[in-house]
Amino acid sequence: MVTIKSKKEIELMKEACRVAALAHKAIEDNIKPGMTTWELDQIAEKTMISLGAIPAEKNYPSGFKDVPNFPASTCISINDEVIHGIPSKKRYIKEGDIVSVDLVALKNGFNGDAARTIIVGKASSDAERLVKVTKQAFFEGIKFAKKGNRIGDISHAIGEYVKAQGYSVVKEFQGHGIGRQMHEDPGIPNFGKAGKGIRLEPGMTLAIEPMVIQGKPDILELEDGWTIITEDGSLSAHYENTILITEKEPEILTII
Ligand code: MG
Q1: Cα three-residue angle 67-70-71, rounded to 5 degrees
Q2: From the CA of 72, how far away is ligand 1's center (Å)?
Q3: How far is the CA of 163 from the centre of ligand 1 (A)?
Q4: pTM of the model
């Protein structure tokens, strides 16, 4: 079901999104080579809890009997890992890595969802370009996130931009409505036909999240049941914000 948020609900959404933005800032301010992904996860977790929020990814159900709930407060996916990487005390961050961090803050019953790919120190120019294009794909998409347009207009803009840059979008995972639930309708693919899908209305809150691969679009799931990697071993980046559809331009709630 697509939910339209009231003014009061939007205020609560904004607070959850502010916490998500601050958790990202804490990570960006502290990330350095030699740290583990678990240490990074702890920074985000402590930030969210200190601001009165719950890290909503922790214990998120996998949906499969044989796969445990997500064990950490953030998904951290490095280089060829696309999304849903599990933070670990054994995984060290290195100079030149591209580190995608996806986190969700739940506060006062509402969720704020954002992802960033951080370049650690100096990376290859290829890696830097991928990260830049992935971020820009989000901004290309939200040019169409306006009242009266359709979901497909956003999807199409993202997909065409990424293709024109010589990269691939992930097809199996997508953006989503968000509110009291982390994942609400509608689904927002990173490719598709303009003019298709539901119409956008003021009060909709959407998590738009291009996941971009340098090489072929194919992905694999690791045996942990969570981590998604690129099949061809090429790099992948992720950029996501929670936005609000308004009477005019969309508001980006997870950038403060
Ligand atoms: Mg997310």
Answers
A1: 110
A2: 14
A3: 22
A4: 0.98
